Request: fold
Amino acid sequence: MKNKLEVLQWAQEKRILAKSNPMKQGLKTLEEVTELLQAIQDNNADEVKDAYGDILVTIIIGAEMSGMDIEDCLQSAYDVISKRTGKMVNGTFVKDIIAL
Reply:
């Protein structure tokens, strides 16, 4: 994934990887998600696109800071959700609760 490598190179050049930490990166992700929600509310497609991109950038950097590869994280999540059952409720997928 060329873009992942470019993001990590940019983060290296900006000293984000050297000077920040996973918690600060997580807070940056939260900030970008808030901007996404505002853009969706404003029906601003350009800002929605920018926010999704910014979120991905912060998540790629955060995974790297945590010693993880973002593609491995995505695969791990998919391995779980691909087996998940549930139903749509008011436009939101609600997973079934599995009793132990």
User: Anything to note?
Assistant: Residues 6 and 49 are 18 Å apart (CA to CA). The mean pLDDT is 95.
